[in-house]
Specification:
Elements: E1 2-10, E2 24-33, H1 37-51, H2 60-63, H3 67-80, E3 85-92, H4 93-105, H5 122-135, H6 137-148, H7 152-168, H8 172-178, H9 185-198, H10 208-225, E4 230-236, H11 244-253, E5 261-263, E6 269-271, E7 277-283, H12 289-309, H13 316-336, E8 341-344, H14 347-356
Parallel strand pairs: 1-4, 3-8, 4-7
Antiparallel strand pairs: 1-2, 2-3, 5-6
Helix pairs in contact: 1-3, 1-12, 3-12, 3-13, 4-5, 6-7, 7-8, 7-9, 10-11
């Protein structure tokens, strides 16, 4: 059986990772068997005509402003859930800066204190990113600003600030390891600049392209495990990434002499090529009811995540959404090994999500999550 997935995003702030009003970026979609996609589309059309007949199309930013609108959105998700499977990736922008710091300064090619095999130890690297997230506020702020307008000397200044903060908090050994990047600052800058220049419209300076790649990996992994025949992707029109998304997609979709599946330290799988996900194209949301449904879904995910993170009041309908979508999907992904979601976020945010779902009785402070790391690279 062939399948289609209709997707859209929420929280796009370009290269601004520090926007306090938009702490998350979300990419989500609905996977539906091709031969019954018309039923799901008709459900969305019927919903729009019944609740928002005066609107040209469904927009989450408009619908979700009230508890009634959130109730309506939950109704929509239940109805199309009879035919569609939801997928999503949530990226916490501030954590992504911490992860980018690790990627930049702890690259074995550009740091003489890092063994090459540490590249694949993503669990340890995520722990380091979490440590930076919890302890190095100034370095994160400065790196976020520098990344928008990169210069060699500014990359060096961020490294100095990072090591200073690590030393202040007692993580002296980790600071020494980061110092191994000092001799490679020109090469680090050149690589960052060349990656930014490779894709049009500064696509690599935003979260959009990396999260898009994570999303297609998520869909491919799921489709392979359940042995779907063929999947076609439809994304809402986006001028900024009209060239970058297809170029990234085609890099994975192109036939390769050698295909491989890389299993990282924490069990995450990286696929070198796409076998099930055969095509991606852009579609105007006005012409696609299911892309409109993806917009509402992405917006609700973003709104819920933001309110949880900022300790804002969560409406009754948002709580229902969180329990069904956030809690339910996260639990199902753990239980049967079929990942429908990916969270690129700090452990602190995960704890906040768990607290919002009543899965833990007390929310730990960010400070309580700081612990001295025990990394294998210390023994090198």
């Amino acid at each position: 059986m062939n399948f289609n997935i209709y997707c859209d995003e929420s929280g796009n702030s370009g290269g601004n990772y520090l926007d306090p009003q938009q702490p998350f970026y979300v990419l989500s979609g609905w996977l539906v068997p091709q031969n019954i996609s018309y039923r799901a589309k008709n459900r969305v059309k019927h919903f729009k005509d019944s609740y928002y007949g005066e609107k040209e199309e469904l927009k989450g930013s408009e619908i979700l402003r009230s508890n009634i609108g959130q109730h309506n959105a939950n109704t929509l998700f239940r109805e199309i859930g009879e035919y569609c499977t939801p997928f999503y990736v949530i990226a916490e922008k501030r954590y992504c800066i911490a992860a980018k710091i690790v990627e930049t300064y702890l690259d074995p090619i550009h740091n003489n204190k890092i063994p090459m095999e540490h590249t694949w130890k993503n669990a340890e690297r995520k722990d380091i990113a979490d440590l930076i997230y919890n302890t190095c506020e100034r370095a994160i702020e400065e790196f976020g600003r520098v990344y928008k307008n990169p210069e060699v000397n500014k990359f060096t200044q961020v490294l100095e600030l990072l090591i200073e903060e690590l030393n202040e908090k007692g993580f002296i050994e980790l600071g020494k390891i980061f110092s191994g990047a000092y001799d490679y600052m020109d090469a680090i800058f050149e690589e960052e600049f060349s990656m930014i220049e490779y894709f049009p419209n500064n696509a690599m300076r935003t979260l959009n392209l990396p999260i898009f790649i994570s999303f297609i990996q998520l869909i491919e992994e799921f489709s392979t495990k359940v042995d779907l025949k063929k999947v076609s992707m439809y994304h809402d029109n986006t001028k900024q990434f009209y060239k970058a998304y297809p170029e990234a997609f085609n890099w994975y979709a192109a036939k390769k002499k050698e295909d491989f599946k890389l299993v990282l330290q924490n069990g995450q799988v990286i696929l070198s090529s796409l076998k099930k996900l055969k095509s991606m194209s852009f579609t105007d949301s006005l012409d696609s009811p299911l892309i409109q449904a993806a917009d509402v879904f992405a917006s609700f995910l973003n709104m819920y995540s933001t309110r949880v993170m900022m300790d804002k009041k969560i409406s009754p309908e948002s709580k229902k959404f969180g329990k069904l979508v956030i809690g339910g999907l996260l639990q199902s992904s753990k239980s049967d090994g079929l990942r429908l979601t990916d969270l690129v976020s700090s452990k602190y945010f995960v704890k906040k999500l768990a607290f919002s779902q009543g899965l833990i009785d007390e929310l730990p402070s960010k400070e309580s999550l700081i612990e001295y790391p025990r990394f294998s690279l210390y023994s090198m």
